[in-house]
Amino acid sequence: MIEFDAVSKIYPGGSEAVREFSLRVPSHRTVVLVGSSGSGKTTLLRMVNRMVDPTAGRVLIDGEDIQSRDPVQLRRSIGYVLQQGGLLPHRTIADNIATVPILNGMPRKQALAEVPALMARVGLDPGFARRYPGQLSGGQQQRVGVARALASDPNILLMDEPFGAVDPIVRRELQDELLRLQAELGKTILFVTHDIDEAFRLGDEIVVLKEKGLVAQRGTPQQILAAPADEFVRDFVGVGRAERQLVLEEVDGRTLAVDGDGRPVGILRA
Ligand SMILES: Nc1ncnc2c1ncn2[C@@H]1O[C@H](COP(=O)(O)OP(=O)(O)OP(=O)(O)O)[C@@H](O)[C@H]1O
């Protein structure tokens, strides 16, 4: 479990990124922080692996205040996936994926021997192992980023807009892949996005943030969609958007769901 206990962050220079934020991320769950640019999402995520230290408050992992943990050791024990993959361009895919296990002291040969299974796990052809990141598509690079984050089998995965730089179709594939992986692996995932649809797809729980990490609402996707806490959440979730305004229509004896623009989006199961 990850616990934010009234954390605040004022960056040197005076910019206040987060004000007294508290949250529990239960083990084996996916919690999504969603909010517009500058709401403090990345700052909060980075507090978990001590890339950012709070100016006030505490972050605990399984009950232990991480302020007492060595930041480098801590970072290597947590998977971290970034929007641009963060891959080393002059190292092969295999070397990129094996980086953390090797840093953790695993013999290089053994770490490299585990690469094909990791690649297969994220839906990548192990034949790509000898290629370089620039030879892969954006979506494939993101899969490498996920494989690298999983390589040392961390309990916690931090994901910062990991699918933000790929086109919508690939994005959807990567989301499906993450759902499949999570059903298999049961990691504790803290996921950051500004895309509410992505949050709805992936999150067991969603935290909608306003500026400075102020929580507008938290809950399951169902709770947030059914009962947005205020005007801000209504707007953010797009309750009034045509594609969220479904009505049922009878056509040839079957019941279709039709959106606010009249487009059919689904059919009720008999
Ligand atoms: N290293 C830094 N130094 C000073 N100010 C910073 C730093 N990092 C972030 N900030 C400021 O803190 C606030 C929150 O930034 P943060 O990146 O956490 O938000 P975010 O919700 O992740 O935004 P985005 O979606 O644009 O990444 C912003 O006002 C930003 O300008």
UniProtKB/TrEMBL annotation:
Keywords: ATP-binding, Nucleotide-binding, Transport. Transmembrane segments: none annotated. SMART domains: AAA. It is an enzyme of class 7 (translocase). The keyword RNA-binding does not apply. InterPro entries: AAA+_ATPase, ABC_osmolyte_uptake_ATP-bind, ABC_transporter-like_ATP-bd, ABC_transporter-like_CS, P-loop_NTPase. PANTHER family: GLYCINE BETAINE/PROLINE BETAINE TRANSPORT SYSTEM ATP-BINDING PROTEIN PROV, GLYCINE BETAINE_PROLINE BETAINE TRANSPORT SYSTEM ATP-BINDING PROTEIN PROV. This is ABC-type quaternary amine transporter. One of its GO terms (molecular function) is ABC-type quaternary ammonium compound transporting activity. Its EC number is 7.6.2.9. It holds the Pfam family ABC_tran. Residues 2-237 form the ABC transporter domain. It comes from the Bacteria.
